[in-house]
Amino acid sequence: MTAVGRAILEAVLLGTVGGLISVQITLRRLPFFTLAMTHATFPGVVLAAIAGINLYAGGGLFGVLIVLGVLALSRRPEQGTSTAIGIMLSAGFALGVVLLSARDGFSKDLTAYTVGQILTVGNSDLLAVTVVGLIVVGLLAVAGRQLTFRAFDPSAYAAAGYRPTAIDMALLLTVEAVIVVAVPAVGAILAVAVLVAPAAIARLWTHDITAMTAIAVAAGAGSGLTGVLISTSYDVAAGGAITVVTGTLFALSLAATTARNAVTARRGRRPAADPATPVTAGPQMKTVEETG
Amino acid sequence: MSGLSERALLELVLTGAVCGALGVQVVLRRLAFFTETFGHITFLGIVAATITGTDIKLGAGLAAMCAVAVTSRHGIASRRNHQHAGVMVSGALALGVVLISARPGFSKDLTAALVGSPLTAGTGDIAMATVVAALVAGALTLGHKELALAAFDPGATRALGYRTRLIDSGLLALLAITVMTAAPAVGAALPLALLIGPAASALLWTRRILPATLLGGLLGAASGAAGLAVSLHYRVATAAGTAVICGALFALAAATSTLTADQRRACPSPAPATSL
């Protein structure tokens, strides 16, 4: 397979996996947390590159530490979680930059880690994305109902005898696994687009979780494909191109659904999916939610 | 010490002090995510300025002003719109990366736009930072009562006849000017660390706003100086070193905070500024 073929495959696989998990991220209102995790995984990947060990192993180990740290922080309700996440985000990114800058050829390395190098992915990278994809599908197949239950009614979930911490941990670790495979391909600062934007697009069109997942997967895979094609034909950064396509898709969806809702509202009918109202009966993650 | 590092020291200390003092408002209002959005949109402005060859402060300032305008109208910082903000954040960043990657040798420009280059700060940058420092200090002193009131009880502020929208917009404009001034020194990705690291640390040591603002400014200035010293000594990126020190400061503050959990819980917790 050529480099471009592998890049396209990687982008489509990543878009699919990202689309699947992004619905859960959106339902639990974790976009800011995801942004922080992508930035905080960055020093782990840099450390792994410097130490010469596997990038996924280094990023993954660091990521698990971060997940545990966030769960520990969120157990202290008196602390502003959004401030703690914000500090973790910027200081983590800065730590990665400091570590990188100690080496020669700093600008080029930083570029590779922050915006990714999807054109250099090898067979092992494709294998890693596939494995993580299977983990995500497995999690959704086994615990999909539980995840939705937990998102929509945390107290009923606990009262029904389930263990909220266990399911939170499973979700956060899976999100971290997706981040770890996404960072080398699309970069630390753009990975959040793969993990949040597909569901944000789907959310505009429907309230139904199954339909939302389908639209999110299509949007993720489609942007991956289009982005790599644009990048190779116009010679611009691939990670950036993928994200710009996703962003454009979001802007178009927002415009289209806003116009549709305005039309239905004028006819006196209830709008199908008004972006201004919460998706549903208030899904929330009490433990690590951000308080904008 | 050469003139180069003296200018860098002055620039970092000034930027750190302004960010530390204003950061107390950001932490009280829980605007961390919003500030991050802001920084990323500013990045687009910096890139546009780099490409067209104009002053990057101009580009950063214009982008920041647009962000303020959009934010005060549509309420991007409210919890409901978090995914929208998330898409905006990465969209603006990605557009900047695409634009900059179309130029040859783009790695160096991207690095400067993302993490800044305080060692190349000129006298113009320092003069600007001084003016903004005076402006922020003046605004925080004159508007102390109103800002505190609006942060803790927007309803009561409105009932007392203040225009909360005006206060909120004023705060956002201050934030925009600060991010703009900080752009040449610390880039688009790092102002968040300087804004909330020292301020959140100060708020862990004292719950009173005026002492916290002074302490935040002091800690911010100290972080800037320490970051430069570390970077010169170990030859690592200067602005990133400063940001790591801000993070370490917060970890230290969280570990040594003299306020007990009970005291912290008893303190009035400010309402999230959902109206922004």
TrEMBL record, chain A:
Cellular compartments annotated: Cell membrane; Membrane
Disordered: region residues: 265-292
Pfam families from the UniProt entry: ABC-3
Source species, domain of life: Bacteria
Major place of residence: membrane
UniProt similarity note: Belongs to the ABC-3 integral membrane protein family.
Protein name (database record): Metal ABC transporter permease
Species whose genome carries this gene: Actinoallomurus vinaceus
TrEMBL record, chain B:
Compartment(s) where it occurs, according to its Swiss-Prot or TrEMBL record: Cell membrane; Membrane
Entry keywords, A to Z: Membrane, Transmembrane, Transmembrane helix, Transport
Principal location class: membrane
Residue intervals passing through the bilayer: 12-32, 38-64, 85-106, 126-143, 212-230, 236-255
InterPro entries (alphabetical): ABC_BtuC-like (IPR037294), ABC_TroCD (IPR001626)
Presence of keyword Transmembrane: yes
Pfam families the record matches: ABC-3
Bilayer topology annotation: Multi-pass membrane protein
Family statement drawn from the similarity comment of this UniProt entry: Belongs to the ABC-3 integral membrane protein family.
Domain of life of the organism encoding this protein: Bacteria
Keyword check for RNA-binding: no
Protein name: Metal ABC transporter permease
